[in-house]
Amino acid sequence: MARENMGGAQVAEVATDELQVWVDQDLCTGDGLCVQYAPEVFEFDIDGLAYVKGVDGELRMAPGSRVDVPAHLRLEVIDSAKECPGDCIHVVRGDGVEVAGPDAEED
Question: Please, how many CA atoms are within 13 Å of residue 57, restricted to the half-sphere of its CB?
Fold first, then answer.
């Protein structure tokens, strides 16, 4: 998305959408990059797989459970999705569009 300023130059618009993240445990390889990138958002359970956790610190165990991405951790969560060897982390906007993860459109 871009818009023109008065001088005719293109100015990129900054996305301000809230983001949510979820982990597909069927694809998780347990490498732990996500836990290293954003331990406030990701955690291993006793099964060796990564799960998201809410602001209350509780793991969200139901398949497809999403949590909000804290604004200060957006880059870390997006990087974890991009670097995940299992390609199992999905970062989505409020409108459902995936911005990082296996179903995100490439630039």
Answer: 0
Percent of the chain with pLDDT over 70: 82
Cβ-Cβ contacts under 8 Å for 78 (sequence gap 6 or more):
91, 99, 100
The tokens for 23 are 């982990």
Q: With cut-offs at 50, 70 and 90, classify the pLDDT of residue 17.
A: low
Q: d(Cα 101, Cα 53) in Å, to the nearest integer?
A: 18
pTM of the model: 0.80
DSSP character string of 15-81: P---EEEEE-TTT-----HHHHH-TTTEEE-TTS-EEEB-TTS-B--STT--EEPPGGGHHHHHHHH
